[in-house]
Write a structure and sequence with these properties.
10 strands; 25% helix; alpha+beta; single chain; 195 residues; 5 helices
Amino acid sequence: MNPNLILVDQNDQQIGEASVIDGHLHDGRRHRAITAFLRDENGRFLMTKRSLTKPLWPTYWDAAYSTHPRVGETVEACTIRRSKEELGTQIGTGDPTCRPNNTQSVFTDHLSYEYHIKWNAAFSEWEINHILLANIPSTIDLNNINPEEISDYQWMTWDQITDWVQKDSDLISPWLTIAIQKIQMDPELKKIFSK
């Protein structure tokens, strides 16, 4: 599969491709991205701390993970692929360790939004970010988390997350802060995520 980023227009329609570096250099180029939320049967969400080796926003907190689909890859396929690469456990497959109540874990794409933020003089994020949610069991195996991607994790309820974003937003990735705000402003999305 082509490892390049998918460059998109303001309507999230593909208009080209770029390497990961070129897509983020200086002001960046608008590209497609995903942020995955994983919720267990107790209503807790897996939150992860980005590793120190990340070139943009290292050591900031995120949802379960965020990444970019490759050229030719759907957002759901990307989300499934990256669950294995980041968490060490594949979500959204027939693997019984990833299925709550013997049902298939499926990522649902709930919203997308555009944002453009500079990290420093060298790099920026300019993304149309898709927010996906999957329900998982609390017994998910997190013993093989990739330390190049994630340095720490914790489980939090939706209320804890929203309070945290309000109090400590300087510790949280900007795309996650935006996602939480957008979900909170939409009654239907708020109902889905806070149940």
